[in-house]
Specification:
125 residues, 4 helices
Length: 125
C-alpha cells in the first residue's frame, strides 16, 4: 500500500467519523427540542430553552451538511449523504418558520418526523 493510499484511507475514516458525530449531534439536539417543548408547556423558562435549542438544532443541521460535503468531495464517494443532509436543513428551516408562525399542528409532527429520520440516519452510519 502506498503512502497516498494510506493517507486517503485515514482521511476517509476521519471524515466518516466527523459525519457520524454530526448526525449524532443533530439527533441529540432534536431530542432536546422535544424535551424543551414539554418544558414550554409546563414552566416559565421553557420558551427560552426552546428558542435557544432551535438555534442549536439549526446549527447542528448545518454542521451535518458540512460534514456530508467533506465526506463526499475529497473521496469522490456517493453524494447521497449530501442530499440527506440538505433535506434535513430544509426540514429544519421549515421547523423554524412554523415555530415562529406558531403553527403547532404542523410543527410538532414535523419535529417527530425529523427525530425519526435522524435516528435512522444515525443507525445507517
Amino acid at each position: 500500500m502506498t503512502t497516498t493510499q494510506v493517507t486517503t484511507a485515514a482521511n476517509s475514516r476521519r471524515t466518516s467519523s466527523f459525519l457520524q458525530i454530526a448526525i449524532a449531534l443533530q439527533t441529540l439536539t432534536i431530542f432536546l427540542q422535544a424535551v424543551s417543548a414539554g418544558l414550554l408547556l409546563t414552566s416559565s423558562y421553557g420558551e427560552v430553552l426552546h428558542s435557544v435549542g432551535a438555534r442549536v438544532m439549526y446549527g447542528a443541521s448545518m454542521l451535518y451538511l458540512l460534514a456530508a460535503v467533506l465526506a463526499w468531495k475529497p473521496g469522490g464517494g456517493s453524494s447521497r449523504p449530501v442530499w440527506h443532509a440538505s433535506g434535513f436543513l430544509v426540514l429544519a428551516s421549515a421547523q423554524v418558520v412554523l415555530g415562529i408562525a406558531h403553527v403547532p399542528s404542523v410543527h410538532l409532527p414535523l419535529g417527530v418526523l425529523m427525530f425519526g429520520l435522524s435516528v435512522l440516519a444515525l443507525a445507517r452510519r
